[in-house]
Write a structure and sequence with these properties.
The structure is a single chain. By secondary structure, this protein is mainly beta. Helix content is 8%, strand content 50%. The radius of gyration is 23 Å and the shape is elongated.
């Protein structure tokens, strides 16, 4: 075959790509002046795109498009060009679609999809959640949350429910007012190369939540988040979607005021076949955490090749700078919101399931606390493997060391006393191999504590 033949093929491929239908939102009436609510125009562009077989809905460069709720649909690529900003409208009164179905107590939807397929969110532009607009007063290391009862108007940035074949690539997503990227019951998802940069003072500001989802790959991301950066869970509101499994996270850099990488606390089903590899965690309140507080199980999880540093923050945030944290305790008895949604219907008390076959390999941590492994009974947490774990324990904040955080749980939320390299409470078959502890804390009790 000649060189001309291959050049011809390349030209045809280029023409095919550029021939893809493009729906510029300004042609549907979007103004992009940073004030006007452009939601109707954006929705019209999406609706036309999906009705005509799919294509690219373009958010063009050089504009800030303020928008209320928008529904993404099948076969649509939402492409946000460099220097373009898509920003959540600050009016709390326009958000009425609950991010958790009948449970209206934990935020509303802004950009969302339900039961769609072949959705992409791409580009070098910015999706801005306008988080501070929905906060109360600024405190030392957090913002006050405005008082709510059963309705919370704060918008989640992306809520994708029952979506098959999803791609989120290259965009910057920032300043979420609540959860930022929430995948519910999704199958075949790729999140690659995004900057997810939330305000570290905003509570409930999770980065990426994988909820009853499967076959998900997250890679090459930079995430800063007041709450957990990446969290796997199975919420009770979406129990019809089944378990969360076959998840790979690699090559990510994270900072959190809570737990950088967490499994739980909501887990009413099973989470299994999970790999976290080749990540860096900085200035987090907790590093790698399994926080099982419901009847669901967590099995076959590997954490490997991770550098992390943990420091203490105020008790507003769960965690006490534990670099590794593996627990299963029943959650505290419920009140209003919790009694309705955290427990099986009609109950205000729960139980916790098994956590087993959890592997930590090649972990290097600088922290103000040691690792904590524990369960409410000896059979709940077992077969935990720590191999080649290096801990550099030293003070780095103004807060006192000497406690492990079990919240949310029944009874006392903290275990207080000396710091150990690895503290084991009521757990079986905990194997520690090649543990190195370099201690500079005044209240150090030893490398491993087994009651």
């Amino acid at each position: 075959m000649t060189k001309a033949f291959f050049l011809g093929l390349a030209l045809l491929a280029s023409v095919a790509v550029h021939a893809q239908s493009i729906y510029d939102i300004t042609r549907f009436g979007a103004v992009g002046d940073g004030v006007t609510n452009d939601a109707a125009a954006i929705q019209q562009a999406i609706d036309r795109c999906t009705a005509e077989g799919g294509g690219v809905v373009l958010v063009p460069r050089g504009h800030t498009f303020v928008s209320g709720p928008v529904q993404l649909k099948s076969n649509v690529e939402l492409h946000v060009e460099a220097t373009a900003v898509l920003k959540a409208h600050p009016d709390e009164g326009i958000y009425h679609l609950s991010a958790f179905g009948a449970n209206e107590g934990e935020g509303m939807m802004w950009l969302y999809a339900d039961g769609a397929e072949n959705i992409s969110i791409t580009g070098k532009g910015t999706i801005h959640g306008n988080g501070i607009a929905f906060m109360g007063a600024e405190l030392d290391d957090s913002y006050e949350l405005k008082p709510v009862t059963t309705f919370d108007p704060r918008p989640h940035v992306l809520t994708l429910i029952g979506v098959r074949n999803l791609t989120i690539r290259d965009v910057t997503i920032c300043e979420g007012a609540y959860w930022t990227v929430h995948l519910v019951g999704c199958d075949e998802a790729v999140i690659d190369g995004i900057n997810l940069l939330n305000n570290l003072k905003i509570r409930n500001g999770d980065g990426i939540d994988l909820d009853h989802s499967k076959n998900v790959r997250i890679s090459n991301c930079h995430i800063t988040s007041g709450d957990d950066c990446i969290c796997l869970k199975n919420r009770r509101e979406f129990e019809q979607y089944g378990s969360c499994h076959d998840i790979v996270v690699t090559n990510c850099v994270m900072t959190s005021r809570s737990c950088a990488i967490k499994i739980g606390s909501e887990n009413m089903d099973s989470i299994y076949n999970v790999l976290f590899d080749n990540c860096v965690i900085t200035a987090s309140n907790r590093g790698l955490g399994i926080q099982n507080r419901d009847e669901g199980t967590v099995t076959d999880v590997i954490f490997s090749n991770i550098l992390l540093d943990c420091r203490l923050w105020s008790d507003v945030w769960w965690g006490k700078a534990e670099p590794i944290y593996v627990t299963s305790y029943p959650r505290a008895n419920g009140n209003h919101k919790d009694a309705n949604w955290r427990f099986p219907k009609g109950q205000i008390e729960g139980r916790c399931g098994e956590v087993s076959r959890i592997y930590f390999n090649q972990i290097t941590a600088t922290a103000e606390n040691g690792c904590f492994i524990g369960g409410d009974t000896p059979d709940k947490v077992r077969q935990i493997y720590l191999n080649n774990v290096k801990l550099h324990l030293r003070p780095s904040s103004r807060y006192a060391t000497g406690a492990y955080d079990k919240r949310p749980c029944k009874g006392e939320g903290f275990v207080k006393g000396d710091v150990y390299g690895v503290y084991v409470e009521q757990s079986q078959e905990v194997f520690v191999n090649d543990l190195l502890v370099d201690n500079h804390l005044p209240n150090y009790g030893g490398d491993v504590r087994r009651p």
